[in-house]
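Q: Please design a sequence for this.
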């Protein structure tokens, strides 16, 4: 078994991904393990509110529906399943699966991983001298004026590996790292030691690439216009060899495509820089090499690793109030003055304690050919510490009362439903905790298997890259969209937004590297002008990577941006017009028709 690569097929990238994915993957190419990732930070926030209301819930209930029709197939083909669909209640999900397996009359063993949920231990942990400092600010958790409702530490993959070694067929996790879902099976399959840093680093990177499902095969990809079969992109497969190297591919016949660029897009997604920290290993991303080795096959090699950090992240959530959002539309001319009138009319009836934020989305055309080219949307977000204040405001009712007394052309989408009830507003605290304080366990049948913390750890050294020298200003230039020469992918890490920008053509890399300085980024994205920006370079990927600290407030679940988790920041950047030397454009054969 260990002589052959392990083939892991992703079937979920987040809670809400395509429901039919398990059907599709099992109808696809042969694989050894199915891997399902459901937990983003913003997803945990939503599950936390549900779990608080009903402790018997808190796991991804429809995962059971996804798996139910395939239990006999899994047993027959001896395919393992590893997922974090357990959310806040992995034991509850494991019990639900056992009931389904018994009803189906098949022989499958279910294990679950526990130890990540430490909300009941927060007081004890702090009393023992662990302040759970904020990952971004360094402030102790005791300074947070919010009552935590959930706290989940990010566990590594060794509990999963142990459960599989002991005979589990389905392993249900809560908050393990996304990549742990891949690291655990790879370590079990190949019999790796806990100190096989390079091998573990390779598995972490393979897991990071496939964890978001179709994103690795052309979904959410800047170069989507060049992909013919992008309608229903499939789910990726990672073939991980004994040395930790991998090949990223997809099921034959599926839509989408696997190229060096689609893999790069996922590699630079939601990272903090050249050091990718995991509870099992620190991954050195600056040594990664990607090579196309066949149609829809990209080899990932050159990954190196070092001991993991002594701490792990803890996702802590607390309710900070309530919120309600609705949308109205404004048509030119005089858009700014119309929005200002709407703002004043709303403020006039807003109770004390309620905050109203209006965001105008879009720009009307100078000479509109249709009514919709002259129209922009205005998103209205109301927040308050207590629900009653929003109920008193009655935002939907207020907006419904303005048809005859607001700006000319006032309308809402009458075919849609205005949000009439406030929802909880959850804030995120990314804490740090020594991994040795956790009780990591795999529970299989009636056995509880203790998982030791990493014996060897190392405090990561932050990598610093100098700013590029100013590009020479000689020679003619042409202003074109940055996206004509570069791809990008952006996402969230708590309250920070990251964006990786890379040149698909090698000839454009020297210019891209010189042009995209931190100062230039502040000019291109004025929203970042006052923020702390971290810049790194990945020459092997021809990529420049930025982290905008604080762009997303305290995290996607609580910030009041429309693009809550920064998904479109990369495309926004690509839309900017930038001066490019004509000599470079000529060498690339650039034409307006080609872009």
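A: Design:
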């Amino acid at each position: 078994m260990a002589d052959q690569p392990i083939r892991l097929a992703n079937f979920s990238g987040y809670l809400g991904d395509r429901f039919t994915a398990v059907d599709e993957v099992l109808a696809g190419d042969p694989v050894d393990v199915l891997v399902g990732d459901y937990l983003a930070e913003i997803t945990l926030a939503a599950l936390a509110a549900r779990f608080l209301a009903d402790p018997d819930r808190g796991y991804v209930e429809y995962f059971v529906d996804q798996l139910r029709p395939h239990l006999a197939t899994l047993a027959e083909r001896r395919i393992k399943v590893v997922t974090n669909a357990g959310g806040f209640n992995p034991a509850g999900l494991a019990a639900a699966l056992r009931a389904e397996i018994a009803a189906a009359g098949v022989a499958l063993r279910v294990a679950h991983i526990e130890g990540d949920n430490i909300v009941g231990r927060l007081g004890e942990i702090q009393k023992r001298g662990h302040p759970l400092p904020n990952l971004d600010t360094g402030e102790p958790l005791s300074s947070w004026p919010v009552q935590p409702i959930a706290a989940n530490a990010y566990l590594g993959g060794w509990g999963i590996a142990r459960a599989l070694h002991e005979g589990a067929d389905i392993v249900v996790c809560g908050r393990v790292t996304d990549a742990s879902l891949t690291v655990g099976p790879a370590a079990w399959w190949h019999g790796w030691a806990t100190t096989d840093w390079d091998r573990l680093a390779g598995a972490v990177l393979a897991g990071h690439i496939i964890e978001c499902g179709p994103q690795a095969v052309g979904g959410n990809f800047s170069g989507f216009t060049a992909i013919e079969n992008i309608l229903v992109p499939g789910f990726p497969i990672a073939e991980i060899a004994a040395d930790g190297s991998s090949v990223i591919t997809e099921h034959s016949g599926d839509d989408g495509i696997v190229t060096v660029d689609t893999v790069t897009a996922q590699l630079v997604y939601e990272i903090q820089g050249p050091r990718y920290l995991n509870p099992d290993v620190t991954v050195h991303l600056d040594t990664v090499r990607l090579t196309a080795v066949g149609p829809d096959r990209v080899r990932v090699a050159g990954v190196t690793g070092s001991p993991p950090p002594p701490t792990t992240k803890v996702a802590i959530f607390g309710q900070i109030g309530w919120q309600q959002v609705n949308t109205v539309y404004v048509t030119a001319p005089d858009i700014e003055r119309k929005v200002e009138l709407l703002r004043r009319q709303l403020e006039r009836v807003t109770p004390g304690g309620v905050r109203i934020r209006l965001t105008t989305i879009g720009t009307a055309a100078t000479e509109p050919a249709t009514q919709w080219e002259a129209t922009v949307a205005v998103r209205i977000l109301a927040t308050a510490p207590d629900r009653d204040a929003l109920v008193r405001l009655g935002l939907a009712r207020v907006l419904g009362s303005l048809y005859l007394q607001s700006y000319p052309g006032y309308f809402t989408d009458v075919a849609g439903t205005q949000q009439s009830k406030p929802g909880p507003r959850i804030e995120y605290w990314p804490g740090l905790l020594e991994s040795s304080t956790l009780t990591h366990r795999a529970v299989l049948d009636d056995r509880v298997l203790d998982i030791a913390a990493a014996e060897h750890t190392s405090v990561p050294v932050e990598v610093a890259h100098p700013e590029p020298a100013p590009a020479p200003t000689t020679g003619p230039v042409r202003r074109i969209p940055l996206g004509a020469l570069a791809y990008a992918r952006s996402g969230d890490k708590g309250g920070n937004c990251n964006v990786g920008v890379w040149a698909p053509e090698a000839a454009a890399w020297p210019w891209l590297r010189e042009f995209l300085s931190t100062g230039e980024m502040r000019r291109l994205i004025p929203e970042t002008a006052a923020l702390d920006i971290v810049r790194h370079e990945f020459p092997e990927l021809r990529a420049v990577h930025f982290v905008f600290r604080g762009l997303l407030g305290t995290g996607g679940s609580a910030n009041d941006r429309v693009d809550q988790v920064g998904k479109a920041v990369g495309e926004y950047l690509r839309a900017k017009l930038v001066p490019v030397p004509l000599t470079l454009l000529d060498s690339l054969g650039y034409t307006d028709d080609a872009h």
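Q: Thanks. Anything notable?
A: The chain has a mean pLDDT of 94. Residues 360 and 378 are 5 Å apart (CA to CA).
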